[in-house]
Design a protein that fits this description.
Radius of gyration of chain B: 21 Å
Number of helices of chain C: 10
Mean pLDDT of chain C: 87
Strand content of chain B: 25-35%
Strand order of the largest sheet of chain B: 6-7-8-3-9-10
Number of domains of chain B: 2
Low-confidence stretches of chain C: none
Structural class of chain C: mainly alpha
CATH superfamily of the largest domain in chain B: P-loop containing nucleotide triphosphate hydrolases
CATH topology of the largest domain in chain B: Rossmann fold
Distance between the termini of chain B: 43 Å
Structural class of chain B: alpha/beta
Number of strands of chain C: 0
Oligomer: heterotrimer
Distance between the termini of chain C: 23 Å
Largest sheet of chain B: 6 strands, mixed
Order of helices and strands of chain B: EEEHEEHEHHHEHEHEEHEHEEEH
Helix content of chain B: 25-40%
Chains: A mainly alpha, B alpha/beta, C mainly alpha
Shape of chain C: globular
Chain lengths: ~130, ~290, ~220
């Protein structure tokens, strides 16, 4: 699992942690049932506050990515989760929004945009 | 008992300085940075916690017990590191132990000598021949050898080189790992705390400016910079420690007030040092 | 009181690196005894010098920030004071033994006699030790060593020099005091010992009051 804090990025540290863990889970790098480092161990390793890592883990738990077992630690939840799916859908929407905004700047028409999407789908053999 | 330290309305009067009814909490298992300028009242607060000076008013509870009534019991589980050693400078490492160990019910000799070894403390030299870093490590070795649940550090890093400072922070991180022990770390070198502090209490001229989590603290303020064109009188009121110069202005702004500002104004996350400097500037503006 | 014993032990360790404070006066005292051909003066000199040097404990306290050590250790202030007085008492007793031994050694070496005079000097020297310490200590418990040192020591240094010089010049005066004590033994002993003990006890009590209030 890769969690690295970039001090100069505008993103708050707890968010950076969240995103990187999420990424690892969504990409399959972190498997279902795998144990995450404890809140305190992660804080120590990254040299940050325990409260920050707690916040990241709490958010991840709320969003349905991980679960805490009392006395044992935090574990990755299975990906076929409603909330995880929601996350992924939201991500797709965000990416589409980006594309749309850029399309506006480039003054592309709706049809042209759609054509581009089809083209990319075709190229990447999306089923 | 959920709080390692519980201070309520602590007040102390001196001739030319007062600690004004300060209150803060340190929950068990966390590290709190006590920050502020020199002379702000950090050392006084620590002295009051250790009952080295008598308070004029207020309450100090350590592990849920009153720090005066249960002083001896509490001190079994407290350890302190100051910026100067408090050992006789003619002592060697074994004499430090011999002189002190019988005071502590939980003294662990093996652990002490383990730390002496890990910290590379010279066994045959007297304390007066120790380097500054070694002196701090010796106090730390003693502090860690009787199972203390609260570690109090008063300016331990001033005078230490960056490598030694990093080593110290590593030791403190390990200390906190089990979640049962707490640290109060008073310093004016805030870069150390920037990373590992969970809570921050900022004391300014005897008053508490802020107490709470470090994350909230840093998120409560933005460093604001902009050109003179963007400067408004409204801003002047809201900015803390405002400085204006030919090419623009800068200051500190509470995060809540930063909505709807011109896009040309730059907002940055401040460091603890930045905040300290700005509130000091603000105070000078009003003096 | 477990902590009392710990406090005494601590004072021992505090003084330990400064062992010369013990060794040198012994040598000086012996030399005084030999060169004045008055061996009992060994006890007098040693006990008086050591009484004056007991303030070394406070000197070290200030020099090495022991106030912070005491602030951190689980010990009450009263126990620190009692510990110091107990240590000083023990130290005086041990010094007295050393003085007695060396006095006897010198007496036999110089082919002199042990008499009542010798024994009375032994007892008086210990009492003077108690008196000096009793008067000194409350000052040091109330004020910082560096601030009070010259003031506290001055009267004693003057008196000490005056007494030694007087005794050396007027051995008759010394003998008179001894003679009087011999003839009115019981009353004198009782009174003097009582006064010293009361003085020592009051001093301890006063020091406790002072140190309890002191800001460390």
């Amino acid at each position: 699992m890769r969690v690295i804090i970039a001090n100069t990025s505008g993103m708050p540290i707890y968010e950076q942690i969240k995103e990187q863990i999420k990424e690892a889970i969504l990409s399959g790098e972190l498997c279902e049932g795998e144990a995450l480092p404890s809140i305190r161990q992660l804080a120590k390793d990254l040299k940050i506050s325990v409260i920050t890592t707690t916040r990241a883990y709490t958010d991840l738990e709320q969003e349905g990515f991980i679960a805490t077992v009392q006395g044992k630690g935090c574990y990755v939840l299975p990906k076929n989760n409603e909330l995880v799916r929601e996350q992924l859908l939201r991500r797709i929407e965000d990416s589409f929004l980006d594309a749309i905004n850029t399309g506006r700047i480039a003054k592309l028409s709706r049809a042209e945009l759609r054509k581009m999407l089809e083209f990319v789908l075709e190229e990447n053999q999306y089923e | 008992m959920n709080n390692a330290i519980e201070i309520t309305n602590l007040h102390k009067d001196y001739k030319d300085f007062s600690l004004n009814n300060i209150s803060f909490l340190l929950p068990t298992g966390y590290i709190m940075g006590l920050v502020g300028q020199n002379g702000a009242g950090k050392t006084t607060t620590i002295r009051l916690i250790l009952n080295m000076v008598t308070r004029s008013n207020g309450n100090v509870k350590i592990f849920g017990m009153d720090n005066i009534m249960d002083e001896q019991a509490i001190k079994q589980d407290i350890a302190a590191v100051f910026d100067e050693t408090y050992f006789v400078d003619g002592w060697k490492v074994y004499e430090v132990e011999q002189a002190i160990k019988s005071f502590y019910a939980n003294w662990n000799s093996t652990l002490y000598y383990q730390y002496v070894k890990t910290f590379n403390l010279p066994i045959n030299k007297k304390v007066k021949d120790f380097s500054r870093g070694m002196k701090i490590k010796l106090m730390l070795a003693v502090a860690l050898s009787h199972n203390a649940k609260l570690l109090i550090l008063d300016e331990p890093t001033s005078g230490l080189d960056p490598v030694a400072r990093d080593e110290l922070l590593e030791i403190l991180s390990m200390y906190l790992l089990d979640g049962q022990r707490s640290i109060l770390f008073s310093t004016h070198i805030t870069s150390d705390l920037e990373k590992i502090a969970d809570y921050i209490t900022l004391i300014d001229k005897g008053n508490i400016f802020y107490t709470g989590t470090k994350d909230d603290f840093l998120e409560s303020f933005y460093q604001i910079k902009g050109g003179l064109a963007e400067f408004t009188e409204q801003l002047r009121e809201k900015i803390i420690g405002l400085t204006t110069y030919k090419t623009g202005f800068s200051g500190l702004m509470p995060a809540l007030e930063t909505k709807g500002l011109s896009k040309n104004i730059i907002l940055e996350t401040p460091t603890i040092d930045d905040i300290l400097v700005y509130i000091s500037k603000e105070r000078k503006l009003h003096e | 009181m477990n902590n009392l014993f710990n406090a005494i032990k601590l004072d021992y360790f505090i003084l330990k690196p400064y062992y010369l404070v013990v060794v040198i006066p012994v040598i000086v005292a012996i030399l005084i005894g030999i060169f004045t051909s008055n061996p009992p003066l060994i006890a007098m000199a040693l006990l008086i010098i050591e009484a004056l040097f007991m303030n070394t404990l406070f000197f070290i306290y200030e020099k090495n920030n022991l106030n912070k050590l005491y602030g951190v250790l689980p010990i009450r202030r009263r126990q620190i004071v009692l510990g110091r007085y107990s240590f000083t008492l023990l130290f005086g007793i041990i010094a007295e033994f050393i003085a007695i031994i060396f006095t006897l050694v010198v007496i036999y070496t110089l082919n002199m006699q042990v008499n009542t005079f010798t024994i009375i000097t032994f007892i008086y020297s210990f009492l003077i030790y108690l008196i000096i310490v009793s008067v000194h200590f409350p000052f040091y418990f109330k004020y910082d060593y560096s601030k009070i040192n010259t003031i506290a020591s001055l009267p004693f240094t003057i008196i000490f020099i005056a007494v030694v010089v007087t005794m050396i010049r007027n051995p008759k005066l010394y003998n008179y005091i001894i003679q009087y004590s011999i003839h009115n033994q019981h009353i004198v002993w009782l009174t003097v010992i009582c006064i010293c003990l009361i003085l020592f006890g009051s001093s301890c009590f006063l020091s406790c009051l002072f140190y309890n209030k002191r800001e460390l």
